[in-house]
Design brief:
One of its GO terms (biological process) is D-serine catabolic process. It comes from Phyllobacterium endophyticum. The protein is an alpha/beta fold. It has two domains: about 10-240, TIM Barrel (Alpha-Beta Barrel), CATH 3.20.20.10; about 255-340. It is about 25% helix and about 25% strand. The strands form two sheets. Strands 1, 10, 11, 12, 13, 14, 15 and 16 form an eight-stranded mixed β-sheet that branches.
Length: about 375
């Protein structure tokens, strides 16, 4: 590894898989989130280990790649696609090269207008479209706002015989973010369950095959009494630091950026030169530092101990300066390690994942770019 690399500790990942399987409510089928796990070998490893062929997808080129590489996979859109995007992808774009894609895709409908657009598209193409309704259970990011609105949409659905409702998608990432002053996560979870129940009561028995909830920060909060049957989870397996929440406390971070150290220096502030010691004496500038190969990632330094970014020197995507403790023994050609704050964007910045297991590098797994 002579350049910045994204390293995945496979043993830690497998440990996280075991924890998730142990803690997930048994009535919830696991759905892997491809945007948070943008690597086909990674998705295949997780699908095999978790015994699932359900994927939540967010970007049609990635959707096509997943469907092509995983013949048993079925996908649920995690965000609504414009009707024009669906038409182009199916007619001449990325989905046109997939055999019978509509049999494996469940689209997402968030408004009556989207429902009409998909209904008209299905009639024009002469094919059935399966979909779920996006419903709002407290996040307020869109979707049907309440049960009466969903009931009206279900009446409207009768105009479009080629549209097939498979259920609902209810994302509730807000639960762990609600402050104690407003009732905290416990009250937010109870509110989500109540709202979910209201939406589910609107559905017919033939409209309940996908009752989706969850995200990485919330998926393990549910007990077997939850009325849902499908839960989405992605980032939790890689545990970037944005997902350090109590419900994931048993998981361990397996994903790190390894960056070669190019230079180790006694820092001199441009413009101050020999007077840099004044800023150091005041604690405003470090006495030791290093420059990394690359930088400005969405990541936090974790090794060596005490390494941190520095406001005086700022960030650089070419050679990032990192402040070091005065007694640091770090040397050029050593490696610094940083823990990503999220997985999706960081994985897309690297061409591959370097797989580390049992003390050695065992493989490289390609990652999916943002095309």
């Amino acid at each position: 590894m002579h350049r910045p690399s994204l390293v995945l500790d496979l043993d830690r990942l497998d440990g996280n898989i075991s924890v998730v399987k142990e803690c997930l409510a048994p009535n919830l089928a696991l759905r892997l989130v491809d945007k948070s796990l943008p690597s086909l070998p990674l998705l295949k490893h997780l699908a095999n280990a978790c015994g699932t062929d359900r994927i939540m997808t967010f970007h049609l080129p990635v959707t096509a790649a997943v469907l092509a590489a995983m013949p048993a996979a079925t996908v649920l859109l995690g965000k609504p696609m414009p009707g024009a995007a669906a038409r182009q992808a199916l007619s001449t774009g990325v989905l046109s090269r997939i055999d019978n894609p509509l049999a494996r895709i469940t689209w997402l409908v968030d408004t009556d207008e989207r429902l009409s657009a998909y209904g008209e598209l299905a009639e024009q193409l002469g094919q059935d479209f399966a979909f779920c309704f996006e419903v709002d259970v407290g996040l307020h990011r869109g979707g049907y706002p309440d049960a009466p609105a969903l009931s009206r949409a279900l009446e409207q659905l009768k105009r479009y015989p080629r549209l097939k409702c498979r259920g609902i998608m209810a994302y509730e990432a807000q639960i762990n973010r609600i402050p104690g002053l407003l009732g905290g996560p416990k009250k937010a979870l109870a509110k989500t369950r109540t709202l979910l129940g209201g939406f589910l009561a609107c559905l017919g028995q033939d409209q309940r095959s996908i009752l989706n909830i969850g995200g990485s920060s919330t998926a393990l909060l549910y007990d077997p009494d939850i009325e849902a049957n499908d839960v989405s989870l992605g980032s939790a397996f890689l545990l970037p630091s944005d997902f350090d929440v109590p419900s994931l406390a048993r998981l361990k971070p397996p994903l790190f950026i390894a960056a070669p150290v190019l230079k180790v220096v006694d820092p001199i502030l441009p413009g101050l030169d020999k007077r840099t010691w004044i800023m150091q004496m005041l604690g405003l500038a470090p006495k030791r530092g290093c420059y990394l190969y690359g930088g400005k990632w969405m990541a936090e330094p974790v090794h060596p101990d005490g390494m941190k970014t520095d406001k005086m020197f700022g960030l650089s995507s070419n050679q990032q300066f990192m402040a070091l403790p005065a007694g640091s023994t770090l040397k050029p050609d050593d490696f610094a390690f940083l823990r990503p704050t999220q997985s999706e964007s960081v994985l897309q910045q690297f061409g591959s994942l370097v797989i580390y297991s049992k003390g050695t590098i065992t493989a490289e797994w390609e990652t999916l770019g943002p095309a």
